[in-house]
Design goal:
heterodimer, A: alpha/beta, Rossmann fold, 6-stranded mixed β-sheet, 10 helices, B: mainly alpha, ABC transporter involved in vitamin B12 uptake, BtuC, binds adenosine-5'-triphosphate, binds magnesium ion, cell membrane (chain A), ATP hydrolysis activity (chain A), ABC_transporter_ATP-bind (chain A), transport (chain A), membrane (chain A)
């Protein structure tokens, strides 16, 4: 379980560019939930995920993961509980390292690293089994440099890496946005498959309202650094994009058009 | 042609600069941390080893302390960067400048001679080899031992974490790697190797001098870049061998250049030649890709 309470964060405090990105954001995600997150550009989605991961420190509020207060912990000290896939396919892996070396980095996520050989024989079966589940033939290319792979392949490997060891929450920030439609669909299906089979708890940011409703079992919308609505279960089933827009307008008491809010 | 003595002399210094190039490989290539501390940590290693040997220490222990001193210097640079957020290049310049004073303090004067002292080389002279071959033999062994240790380290869990820190720090953090600690460890290791090089240099030359560090960074870079040009560094082992080969090739090239009377070069021209060579080595690959680029575009 992960819970964020009243998170506040202002970028560039005391400068002319002062920008309140989180303005009292609260959200609790329970074990096994797959939450999709939507919101307009600049709503604070990435900032929220970065705050959960430890990449940015909140000014106030509290973040608890599995009953541990992690609010002041840096990224690397949360990594045993928080797994991530970035939007940029190049960001989640090291291109100069081989596929097996990248996987070896990930299998030790959040654990002590010693002086024994990083790529161990006993990992090999797990590496090639999980790679072959991608059906990309990567299980035969373990020694290849990551940089030789396409963006979609790299993103698929990033997903594998994030799920190689257990985590309390998996953070996905528009991780299919940089891919072509076909590859994006493949990576999304892979995401659903991994989350379902490993019963992961996940938070996925998407710019597609349609996708937000089709995937996962709960949807939250952020606006100006706050949660404006949060739907799950019956209420969410059968909901369509236009209902979502209606919901948003009702909540905010303002008129918005599709485009200004979301694309796709 | 080079005399035999000049040839072995070039090999000897080349092997020592190979150790410097290892250090520069770690900072510049593995960590992507441009570190100029080496101009200070090289004479630091020399000063520490020389003073301890004169105080009657076992030369290998003295050399070990030179490594420790170099590591401490590197750690200072890295901490200035990681903890105080000083730009890496500037942090290393600060340490380098400070080390000039430190080195003078350690030696108590600008230079010391190791006349008649036992050095790490002393027992090797009893093997019956030719006088000028002895240092080469010992330094080949040292360079190879260091190479194997570094190679093992780079393949270890911690070494891999260090490589990830330099290549993609955001990813490294997300994998739970304390990137700040990795930078401190890496820059310390790098300068420890340079301290070792300084200690060996002092012992083979029979003296330590505060100014002996001037330009070490550029010579090390020349060795690294030259080696990479000769031996494409696609793997860690190849990159490490490239350091040694680059350093030896560089020293041989310098020896030939100084030896060729027709060129009219003198020892004091060394730094200028080196700077020109490094500039060429940095610029040439770019020029080459640009040319091939233009060529292939014309074809398309
Ligand atoms: N490092 C930063 N420094 C200053 N301002 C920032 C920083 N990161 C984000 N912001 C600002 O904070 C606000 C929230 O940004 P954020 O990236 O969280 O939005 P988002 O919901 O992810 O938007 P998008 O859909 O465009 O990805 C924006 O106004 C943005 O300009
Ligand atoms: Mg974003």
């Amino acid at each position: 379980m992960i819970s964020a309470t009243d998170l506040k964060l202002t970028f560039g405090k005391g400068t002319p560019l002062e920008n309140p990105a989180l303005r009292g954001m609260s959200l609790t995600v329970n074990q096994g939930e797959f939450v999709t997150v939507i919101g307009s550009n600049g709503a604070g989605k990435s900032t929220f995920l970065n705050a959960l991961a430890g990449e940015v420190m909140v000014d106030s509020g509290k973040i608890v993961v599995d009953n541990q207060d992690v609010t002041r912990l840096p990224t690397h000290k949360r990594a045993n509980r928080v797994a991530r896939v970035f939007q940029d396919p190049l960001a989640g892996t090291c291109e100069n390292l081989s596929i097996e070396e990248n996987l070896a980095l990930a299998i030790k996520r959040g654990q002590r690293r010693g002086l024994t050989s990083a790529v161990k024989k006993q990992y090999m079966k797990q590496f090639s089994d999980s790679l072959s589940s991608l059906n990309l033939g990567l299980e035969n290319r373990l020694g290849d440099k990551m940089g030789l792979l396409s963006g979609g392949q790299r993103q698929a490997v990033s997903l594998l890496m994030a799920s190689l060891t257990p985590s309390s929450i998996l953070l996905l920030d528009e991780h299919t946005a940089a891919l072509d439609p076909k590859t994006a669909r493949f990576v999304l299906e892979l995401t659903e498959h991994i989350i379902a089979t490993q019963q992961l708890t996940a938070l996925m940011v998407t710019h597609s309202m349609k996708q937000a409703l089709e995937v996962g079992n709960r949807t939250v919308m952020l606006h100006q650094g706050q949660v404006v609505f949060d739907i799950a279960g019956k209420e969410r089933d059968g909901l369509e994009v236009k209902d979502l827009l209606g919901l948003f307008e009702k909540q905010r008491g303002l008129q918005v058009d599709d485009d200004s809010l979301l694309l796709g | 042609m080079l005399s035999e003595i000049a040839f072995y002399g070039a090999l000897e210094t080349g092997l020592i600069y190979g150790l410097v190039a290892f250090g520069i490989y770690i900072s510049f290539r593995v960590l992507d941390f441009p570190d100029l501390t080496v101009d200070g940590s090289f004479p630091l290693g020399a000063a520490v080893a020389a003073m301890l040997i004169m105080a009657g220490w076992n030369p290998w222990l003295a050399t070990g302390m030179a490594i420790v001193a170099g590591m401490a210097a590197g750690a200072v640079t890295a901490l200035l960067n990681v903890k105080l957020n000083i730009l890496n290049l500037l942090a290393s310049i600060l340490t380098m400048i400070a080390l000039y004073s430190v080195n003078l303090r350690i030696m108590g004067r600008p230079n010391v001679a190791l006349l008649g002292e036992d050095t790490v080389l002393t027992p090797w002279y009893e093997l019956g080899l030719e006088f000028h071959q002895v240092p080469v033999l010992l330094f080949v062994i040292v360079a190879l031992v260091v190479l194997v240790l570094l190679w093992r380290f780079m393949k270890s869990e911690t070494g891999l974490a260090m490589r990830a820190t330099g290549a993609n720090p955001r990813m490294a953090r997300a994998q739970g790697i304390a990137t700040g600690a990795m930078i401190v460890l890496g820059v310390a290791l790098s300068n420890g190797l340079v301290g070792l090089a300084g200690a060996l240099f002092a012992q083979s030359q029979g003296a330590a001098d505060v100014t002996m560090g001037v330009g070490v960074i550029v010579i090390g870079l020349a060795s690294l870049i030259g080696g990479e040009a000769v031996l494409t560094p696609s793997t860690v082992v190849r990159a490490l061998f490239a350091c040694i080969i680059g350093a030896i090739v560089y020293r041989l090239a310098i020896a030939f250049a100084l030896n060729a009377d027709a060129l009219g070069l003198q020892a004091q021209d060394l730094n200028l030649i080196t700077a020109v060579l490094v500039t060429l080595a940095i610029v040439l690959p770019g020029v080459r890709t640009k040319l091939t680029h233009r060529f292939s575009r014309k074809q398309a």
